[in-house]
Amino acid sequence: MDSELIYQLAIPFIPNIGPVQARLLIDHFGSASAIFSARITELMAIEGIGRIRAHSIKSFKDFSKAKEELHFIRKYNIRPLFITDSEFPKRLLNCPDSPVLLFYKGEADLNAQRIISIIGTRNHSDYGKNLTENLVKDLGDLNVLVVSGLAFGIDAISHKAAIKNNLSTVGVLAHGLDQLYPIQHSSLAKEMIKKGGGLLTEFTNGIKPDKHNFPARNRIVSGMSDATIVVETGIKGGSIITAELANGYNKEVFAFPGRVNDIKSMGCNYLIQQNKATLVTSGEDVISYMCWNNTTVRKEKRPLGELSENELRIVTILKEKDETHIDELNAKCDLGNGLVAVTVLNLELRDVVRSLPGKLYRLA
Questions:
Q1: Looking at the predicted structure, is the pLDDT value of residue 304 above 80?
Q2: Which of 72-81, 272-281, 290-299 has the lowest mean pLDDT?
Q3: Residue 356: is it exposed, middle or buried by C-beta count within 10 angstroms (0-12/13-18/19+)?
Q4: C-alpha dihedral over 300, 306, 307, 312, to 10 degrees?
Q5: Cα torsion at 229, 233, 237, 240 (round to 10°)?
Q6: Higher-pLDDT residue of 250, 220
Q7: 331 near 83, Cβ under 8 Å?
Q8: Which letter, b or e, does each residue of 224-256 get, where b requires 16 or more Cβ atoms within 10 Å of its Cβ?
Q9: What are the C-alpha distances in Å from 153 to residues 61, 150, 160, 192?
Q10: 180: closest CA among 110, 127, 105, 278?
């Protein structure tokens, strides 16, 4: 077990291998140890790897940083979550540039039934603060996991509002877990963990919150949730990047409108104007669009008739609960996202499966 974990921890330190290439390698070989033991011809044959990256892997011999990381995570009770682990955020599996390794300090379920990301400007107004607090309050009865980036402004307000409303909340960081940025949120971070939330990052200890780490952080914020909600933001900045990423992952994006001449609302108005976000005015709107208030009792099913093996696999998963997100189907079916989409569509056409807003599916 330790040797496999060492190989997993070593992947971030291989030169020329980023998240996309690491994902290709894991999809091909199935484990970290198999990557390191593969022949160079096998590595070179993988599309997207090639000669230079294959040589980087085969020439990698220095596992000292991986061993140092193992010592660090054990000392501070940090959980490494590899992409093949059951506790890895499964919604990220639908993102081609997903990290293959995450570090987690906390207890919140990263595969909770309902997960939202709340993002916005660091320089919020009273309007943005009130919107955020009321939004989280509206979601309080649904046991939603609230995700944000632990930054100043809307991020911190959303984390605090989640705690106030007895919701778990996770902060995704742009640095290693040996530090906290901004340092002013140290007490908030401790409270989040204490109240059943947590801190999550793809960065090893010693990695500082450099500017280029924040867009990488933002893809996790958007990718691990069902929907991204932009409360208040200018026309440029991290919130717009995160919303764009969410759109690229086919996630739901919502935005609160603001006055047309308000700099702090121009980003939200832009997203709505460009049809990159759905306009919402409250948490109730989000709940409605996501069909999270659907209490209709499912009617007795008629006989399904003969199903193919792939169709039966999807139907079996849908039987487990009332509503299932497409990301969960992709993760559990192990068929490939394209084949899952085609199979689900065929089931819809036969009135076996019903699609719901928010990329949710249920048996008809």
A1: no
A2: 290-299
A3: middle
A4: 60
A5: 40
A6: 220
A7: no
A8: bbbbbbbbbbbeebbbbbbbbbbbebebbbbbb
A9: 44, 9, 11, 16
A10: 105
Distance from C-alpha of 228 to C-alpha of 120, rounded to nearest angstrom: 10
Token pair belonging to 364: 């008809």
Q: Which residue has the tokens 């487990």?
A: 320
Nearest to 355 by CA among 294, 307, 271, 312: 294
Could you identify the residue written with the tokens 């039966």?
312
The count of other CB atoms within 10 Å of the CB of residue 167 is 25
Q: Which residue has the tokens 């090639």?
A: 50
259 touches 148 (CB < 8 A)? no
Q: Copy the structure tokens of residue 18.
A: 């980023």
Q: Phi, psi at residue 199, to the nearest 5°?
A: -120, 140
- Is the pTM higher than 0.70? yes
Return the amino acid letter for 267: G
Domains of the chain are 2-75 (1.10.150.20), 106-289 (3.40.50.450), 309-363 (1.10.10.10)
Decide: 189 and 183 in contact? Cβ < 8 Å.
Answer: no
Confidence class for position 294, pLDDT limits 50, 70, 90? low
What percentage of the chain has pLDDT greater than the value 90? 75
pLDDT band for position 310 (50/70/90)? confident
pLDDT at 333 over 90: no
pLDDT at 222 over 50: yes
Between CA 101 and CA 202 the distance in angstroms is 6
pLDDT for 342-354, tens place per residue? Answer: 788 778 767 788 8
DSSP annotation of 234 reads -
